[in-house]
């Protein structure tokens, strides 16, 4: 997409966070400023009239109370009442983040953030800010009105997607538990957000918990909360993620990754709709609408004894199956043209076109990474192509399981280009391709830090 007409200020005392934030956000927003000194906030607000401030909650060395974040939240809202404030917080600050929401913050993001989620939250904040100033609905509504094939975040006219839309419309207004099944990159979180936006809880919190990222040892503390002193680092009472979601929607992503022991604990809470914080014996009621998602074959896992049948029955009152891109080929052209328009504007290359051979190759490709892979493939092609047409050589086509698909584009270097810089660029590109743009995984593969990878991305203009 073209850059959003929005001014964003990022405030954090860690330079790595500021660098990563600026590199990411400047691709999506017209103005992005950063500062490690919160005392500069008043002058920066006066100078730039920021639409959104992304504000860390702690600044002093070793501070965990988040009092500083609450102080600067109040200062920002006093100096610029129309500015939207989004807090950055660690898991342990969630209870304070909920308090901050009551005091005027719009949302909060967890550190380390996920790039797509952070950008989505900031874009929503900018759109809502624009709507309040101009008396218009957010840009998403305009897209829906002018694009016949756009459905609440989805693009597609295939019969498979029409069935998905119909199911979402039928179930969204209820509080029925929903299980979303589909491969990586098919849009499971998009479907969950569509269900939430169309529900009676749309004005309340949409809480995402990536169960694949929560360690076994921290599972109960993160999801159920804990009392002060319940374990070594429990320095204060803290609400868990389920309590934070009360009144809204709880989205449990990657539920298939839970061990049997953790499945049993989760099932108990879902059945009773009560949580008991670690270190206490007092049950606390929760009021949530539950949506779960996974790319794993839960029914096979039930037969193998690795997933509890009673938990499956608890979470799948309604199932939504998101088809892989190879099963909705009618949508590939629509998606490719959509992403091309996005990156034509972003990289100021309005002359670019898809030729017929390229479109044929895109249609024939098996897209193991689904829509996410197509999105990243189109962006890379727009960046790397030399002429006014996108050719197959501008794309990377991973080999299929039978080995028939050829690898093009990034698989080779020019015969006379064996410099270390060219090799470094190629390896960074290939790591990003392999991990569908996931910075954390790509950095791990390359054996460097996220910050070092961000520097190389900026260095090579990727």
From TrEMBL:
Q: Which CDD domains match?
A: AAA
Residues that the record marks as modified (4-aspartylphosphate) are 56
Its domain of life reads Bacteria
- List the InterPro entries hit by this protein, alphabetically: AAA+_ATPase, AAA_lid_NorR, CheY-like_superfamily, Homeodomain-like_sf, HTH_Fis, P-loop_NTPase, Sig_transdc_resp-reg_receiver, Sigma_54_int
Positions of the Response regulatory domain: 7-126
- Residues in domain Sigma-54 factor interaction? 154-383
Which keywords does this chain's UniProt record carry? Answer: ATP-binding, DNA-binding, Nucleotide-binding, Phosphoprotein, Transcription, Transcription regulation
This protein's record includes keyword Lipoprotein: no
Provide one Gene Ontology biological process annotation. phosphorelay signal transduction system
* Pfam families (alphabetical): AAA_lid_14 (PF25601), HTH_8 (PF02954), Response_reg (PF00072), Sigma54_activat (PF00158)
State any single GO MF term.
sequence-specific DNA binding
Asked if the Swiss-Prot or TrEMBL record annotates the protein with the keyword NADP, the reply is no
> PANTHER family given for it?
ALGINATE BIOSYNTHESIS TRANSCRIPTIONAL REGULATORY PROTEIN ALGB, TRANSCRIPTIONAL REGULATORY PROTEIN
Q: What is this protein called?
A: ATPase AAA
Its ancestry begins with: Bacteria, Pseudomonadati, Bacteroidota, Cytophagia, Cytophagales
């Amino acid at each position: 997409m073209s850059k959003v007409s929005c001014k964003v200020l990022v405030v954090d005392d860690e330079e790595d966070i500021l660098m990563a934030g600026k590199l990411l956000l400047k691709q999506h927003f017209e103005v992005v400023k950063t500062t490690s000194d919160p005392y500069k906030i008043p002058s920066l607000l006066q100078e730039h009239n920021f639409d959104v401030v992304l504000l860390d909650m702690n600044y002093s060395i070793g501070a965990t109370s988040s009092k500083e974040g609450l102080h600067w939240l109040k200062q920002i809202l006093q100096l610029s009442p129309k500015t939207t404030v989004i807090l950055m917080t660690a898991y342990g600050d969630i209870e304070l983040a909920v308090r901050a929401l009551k005091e005027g913050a719009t949302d909060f993001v967890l550190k380390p953030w996920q790039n797509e989620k952070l950008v989505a939250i900031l874009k929503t904040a900018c759109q809502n800010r624009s709507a309040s100033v101009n008396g218009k609905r957010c840009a998403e509504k305009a897209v829906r009105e002018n694009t016949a094939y756009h459905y609440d975040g989805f693009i597609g006219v295939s019969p498979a997607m029409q069935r998905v839309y119909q199911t979402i419309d039928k179930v969204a207004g209820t509080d029925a538990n929903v299980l979303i099944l589909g491969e990586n990159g098919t849009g499971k979180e998009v479907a969950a957000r569509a269900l939430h936006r169309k529900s009676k809880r749309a004005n309340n919190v949409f809480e995402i918990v990536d169960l694949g990222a929560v360690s076994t040892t921290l599972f109960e503390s993160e999801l159920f909360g804990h009392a002060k002193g319940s374990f070594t680092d429990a320095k204060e009472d803290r609400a868990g993620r389920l309590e934070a979601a009360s009144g809204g929607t709880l989205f449990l992503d990657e539920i298939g990754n839970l061990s049997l022991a953790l499945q049993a604990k989760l099932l108990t809470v879902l059945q009773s709709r009560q949580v008991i914080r670690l270190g206490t014996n007092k049950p606390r009621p929760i009021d949530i609408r539950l949506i779960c998602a996974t790319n794993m074959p839960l029914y096979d896992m039930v037969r193998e004894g690795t997933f509890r049948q009673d938990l499956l029955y608890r979470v799948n009152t309604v199932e939504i199956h998101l088809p892989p891109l190879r099963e909705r080929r009618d949508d590939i052209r629509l998606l490719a043209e959509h992403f091309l328009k996005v990156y034509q504007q972003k990289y100021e290359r309005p002359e670019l076109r898809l030729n017929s051979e390229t479109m044929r190759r895109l249609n024939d490709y098996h897209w193991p990474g689904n829509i996410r892979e197509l999105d990243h493939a189109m962006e890379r092609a727009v960046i790397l192509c030399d002429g006014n047409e996108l050719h197959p050589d501008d794309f990377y086509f991973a080999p299929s399981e039978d080995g028939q698909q050829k690898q093009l584009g990034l698989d080779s270097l020019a015969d006379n280009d064996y410099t270390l810089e060219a090799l470094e660029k190629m390896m960074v590109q290939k790591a990003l391709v392999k991990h569908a743009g996931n910075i954390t995984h790509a950095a791990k593969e390359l054996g460097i830090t996220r910050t070092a990878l961000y520097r190389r991305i900026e260095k090579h203009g990727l």
